[in-house]
Amino acid sequence: MTDTLAISGGTPVRNTETHPWPSWPQNTSDEWNNKIEPLLRDVYFSSNEGSGGTMIPRFCELYASYTGTNYALFMPHGTDSISAALAAALDLDGFSEGGEIIVPNYTFVATASAVLERRCTVAFVDISPETFTIDPKAVEDAITPQTRAILPVHLGGHPAEMGTLQDIAKKHQLYLIEDCAQAHGAEYQNKKVGNLSDVGAFSFQASKNLTSGEGGMVTTNDKDIHDRVCAFMNVGRAPGGARWEYPRLGWNYRPSEYLAAILLVRLELLQEQTNLRNRNGVYLSSLLEEVDGITPPIHAPWTTKHGYHLYCMKYNPDGFGGKSREDFVKALSAEGIPCSIGYRSPLSMEPGMAHVGEKYPDLIRTLPCPNTELVCEQSVWLFQNLLLSTESEIDQVVEAITKIHNAWN
Ligand SMILES: Cc1ncc(COP(=O)(O)O)c(C=O)c1O
Questions:
Q1: Is 176 exposed, middle or buried (0-12, 13-18, 19+ CB in 10 A)?
Q2: Cα 202 to ligand 1 centroid, rounded to whole Å
Q3: Got the DSSP string for 233-262?
Q4: Labelling 118: which of 103, 213, 314, 318 has CA 20 to 30 A away?
């Protein structure tokens, strides 16, 4: 006797109308009244809502100290942060070809579009099927005389294999640039992401584990890179330089003081929230290990802290009576557990990217990516806000998956 699945008219394990999952961001009246509103008020009455205010320098200082880097530079978006990181590391003005950048083929579109926007070419390489992050062996195989940088992504919050990538970058004299958009607070051997390469790029877009709706950050330990990011984002000015002097060419990527004010408050909670997501992530995996057909995400040995922007598991139809992953996602969603198949195809095969590749074959080189293809077929993602719930709520995720498992076997 099995329970009728919600998708077939049964009662869902969780009624999300009466019992919603933790909202994101976790806004409260208390926080607004005591923290956010006074800071926004300060900005408003300072008559200094853009550059020259105090919130952005304060937030940058705290974020640099959080990541352990010498510098942090607040940007309007994560995509801009990748562009600025590349422009600064490679000293590119964007008017000549910048060389080739090695990018994992399993990532958000912006990782590669920011590279193309800087007039660099992209080499898409495979990922590890365990961590969903760039495979160092595939990186080394892809290197050519045109290669200038490696751009690993800490996908879903799991740190890429940075030690090996550092060795490869050093051996071949390449820049290493981290896409940390999904990995605030994640640690590789006790060192925070964004501090494991020449330069890191974060996003504070609405879904991210630290957010101001939109926003980004570049982190680096290198003074020259810092200065070039300053020029890139501030119409070519030198840090602390005169207003009408432009020693380099740059653009306007200056964010608003209001965003930094909100982030200052939310940064206070980031570590505690990351720890909670880690506790719940590990707890969930310990239970899902028992379910035939589900492979929970791993913590590779170098991962001293997972960022858990996503809980990326893998689904095998054999454990679920042969039902497709798409059917599983529909059934799990109906049980009140929000989930997604994630990236549906390797980024190189997404129509926009494929179109660029067809029109300008010299811009995109795609190496064999069997693991990426497999992960695109098997992955099921849960989202970070779910991991901010209680253990008994995490039990409902397992209950829903087990219910589907039993109904289909
Ligand atoms: C891996 C990755 N890189 C880059 C970005 C771009 O960030 P943004 O949306 O802030 O431009 C995102 C998220 O949106 C992302 O997930």
A1: buried
A2: 8
A3: HBTTPPTT--TT--SS---B----HHHHHH
A4: 213
CATH classification code of 269-408: 3.90.1150.10
Per-residue pLDDT at 319 exceeds 90? yes
Judged against a pLDDT cut of 90, whether residue 1 lies above it is answered with no
Ligand 1 contact, 113 CB (< 6 A):
no
Beta carbons of 162 and 111 less than 8 angstroms apart: no
Q: What number does the ligand 1 atom closest to the CA of 77 have?
A: 10
The pTM of this model reads 0.98
CA distance 406 to 382: 21
In the block, residue with structure tokens 């800490």: 154
Q: Share the mean pLDDT of the chain.
A: 97
- Residue 81 Cα to ligand 1 midpoint, Å, equals 9
Domain boundaries, the chain: 29-265, 269-408
pLDDT band (50, 70, 90) for residue 313: very high
Q: What are phi and psi of 81, to 5 degrees?
A: -65, -40
Question: Ligand 1: distance of its center to the CA of 80 in Å?
Answer: 9
- 147-150 β-sheet, strand order: 71-75, 216-220, 199-203, 175-179, 147-150, 100-104, 121-125, 364-366
pLDDT in tens, 356-406: 999 999 999 999 999 999 999 999 999 999 999 999 999 999 999 999 999
214 in Cβ contact with 227 (< 8 Å): no
Closest CA to 97 of 140, 144, 138, 147: 147
Let me know how long the chain is: 409
Cα separation, 140 vs 339, whole angstroms:
34
Q: Look at the domain 29-265 and name its fold.
A: Aspartate Aminotransferase; domain 2 (3.40.640)
- Ligand 1 atom 7, closest CA: 78
Please give the full DSSP string across 60-100, using - where no structure is assigned: HHHHHHHHT-SEEEEES-HHHHHHHHHHHHHT--SSS---E
Return d(Cα 77, Cα 72) in angstroms, integer.
14
